[in-house]
Structures are given as structure tokens and as C-alpha cells.
Model the fold of this input.
Amino acid sequence: MFDFAVIGGGIVGLSTAMQLSQKYPGCKVLVLEKEKHWAAHQTGHNSGVIHSGIYYKPGSYKARFAKAGAKSMADFAIKHNIAHEITGKLIIASDSSEIAGLEKLYQRGLENDVPVKKMTPAEAKEIEPHVACVQAVQVSSTGIIDYKQVCETYAKELEKMGGELRLETKVTGLAFGGSVHVIETNRGAFEAKFVVNCAGLYSDRVAKMGKADPQAQIVPFRGEYFELTPEKRHLVKTLIYPVPNPDFPFLGVHFTKMIDGSVHAGPNAVLSFRREGYHKTDFDIPELLEILTYPGLWKLGAKNWREGAMEMWRSWNRAAFLKSLQHLIPELTDADIVPTHAGVRAQALKPDGGMVDDFLIVEAPQALHVCNAPSPAATASLEIGKEIVARVEKHLATSSMTAPKAPELQPA
Done:
């Protein structure tokens, strides 16, 4: 019998499990992950950015947790010798039509207490000599990190505290008997007093297994990247972002200097034909039918069909993708980019076509289901874990479940 079982071995699940062990020393914590290694999906395929919190609605979880997470993540990296760098980033207006949008971002940065600074084209070029812009905003708290290493460290810290970590263990069923959850897996059944679902791309399915209603469905969006050739990495010193389309919940194609020195360019945002579809040819018929028959997807498409069509065109047309990159760095040529990995974003979509625009944690008897945790969840993983621990405390205070107690020390 475990005190806590966490489903999902990505960065949010491992952070949560680690912090539950810290909060309740001596408790029995179990982490279940279906893959052979940690951070196999969203965490391991993202761009490795420590986000500042500039984009998000003031007061939202994303705004508060990203800002706090930028600091706590950097502090964690320093403490555990994890490769990272606070590089700062530029958000640039390429022409006069984007200045109003850039000004709104600047004001939002001020509202969210994010360190922002307006820059002239000449000032921007002092930081990024190859950008073309009419105005820019610098965000100094943005950085880069190796999130796989962060996850491995979370797992090691959890193991030191006695946590049990199970890889290659896929959850197939979840039932609550009034006081205990029975978790069915391909490697047998486990019992736990409290369950935290951090299953990412399958979080809504796990929630429904546990009789919780997230009132949204995960719809997967693939983000495809190019990488600059080694000879052209000098074109990008830090991170360069465009002014995003305010009606589309993605940040637009941008340049990211990675912690290994490489420079990634992307991502776009296209509908994936399976939840873990990292290639254009990946599809799963049952999952595709589930995606295509969801009313929310068609309502989203009706509102954003132009943007969606442009994203699909960029996915299949390399010249169109390059043109988006040249919007930021005009001298870039086709010979300067090569395709690299893709990621898949688990985006919760409401039946009315609205995207869930904040982290979503659904409460159930002796369970919490994290049903929307796309970017900036990696940056905010320590803060999300803190929030979950705080909610667990409230559950323990109002339910018949007793808080786990540390084992008593035996006399020598």
C-alpha cells in the first residue's frame, strides 16, 4: 500500500512526487511511467527554455508559476549542478504593423512583474547583430536548460527519500473503492491512498478512468523544428521571438540557442494524427477518429482556419517555413537549416472550441488530475508541484484520510 501514487514520469509528475516526499518524510511514494526512461514525451521534446511569464494573463497560474518557476528552476539547477544559462531573449517587431502587439506584450510584462526593456533597432542589434526589426523588447530573465537532466535529478532526489520508481509500467485502469485507489497496470496492480495524475498526453483518459470529468479533451499539436548548421550558429546569440498572433495560442516560429550550443528554429503547430505522433506519417486510427470526431476541434478550426491552414502549409513546404524564419533573420538561406526533432503539445480543448489557456487541475476524491500542463509547465514544474502538495494538504484536512507520518526513530 502506497500513501501516494503519481502517474506519469515527466517533469511535473517527478516534481510532484519529490515534493510529496519532502512534505511527508517517510511516506511511501510510487511513480508509474509507461516508457523506458523519464521525460520521454513533452518534457524531453521541448525547446529547453526557462520562460519568464511575459505572455500569460495576469494572475493566472501560468503567469505566477512561470515567473516564480524561472527563479526556482535556476536555483535548483545551481544547487544540483545542472547545465543552464540565463541568456535573456528578444521579442521583435519586424515591421510597423507589429508594434502595437509588442507594446501590449511589454505592458503585460510590467503587469506580471517580469523584467522587460524596450529597445531600438540599434540596441537590439547590439545583442543580436543579425535580426531585422523596427522595435524590440528584451526579457532578461529568460534562460535555457537541460530539462531531461532536471527530471533525472528529481528522480534521484525522490529515490534518496525512499520513493519507488517504476518504468515500463503502463496504467490500464484506475478505480477508487472509497478509501483506496486500485491502479491496474501491465505489471500488476498497485494500491494507493491518494493518486496524482500527471499523464500528459493521456491525462484526460486517466482522469476518466478515475471517474473525474476534465470537461475538456486533449488534442495533440505537433511542433516541428529545423536546426541551424554549425557554420551558421553564430547568427543567434540568445533567443529571438516574433510578436505572437494574439488569437492563436502558440508563440510563433522562433530561434532558441540550446544548452549544447546548437540553435533550433521553430516550432510550427500542426494537428497530430495520434497523441504521440512525432512524424508527419504517424497516425493511429482509433486516436485519429477520437480527435476528428471531437466537436471542439471543428469549432476551433472554424475560428482559426486561416492560421491552421498556414501552419499545415509550413509543415509541408520548407520554403514557407524558411520565409517565417527570414522574418526574423533575413540573411538566412535554405542551405543554413536542417530538419531536427519534433515535439507534441498536449493541449486541452473545450467542447465549445476554446483552448484551456491555463494549467488545469481537476479534483476528485483522494485524487488530483493535471489535465492541462503544456508550456510553460517545465519552467513551472517546481511551482506546480508546490500547488499540488498544497491541495493534497487541503484534501487531508477535509477527508477521512490521515496524513502520512514519518517512521519513529528506534532507540539505539
In short: The chain has twelve helices and 20 strands. The two ends are 28 Å apart (CA to CA). Residues 60 and 359 are 8 Å apart (CA to CA).
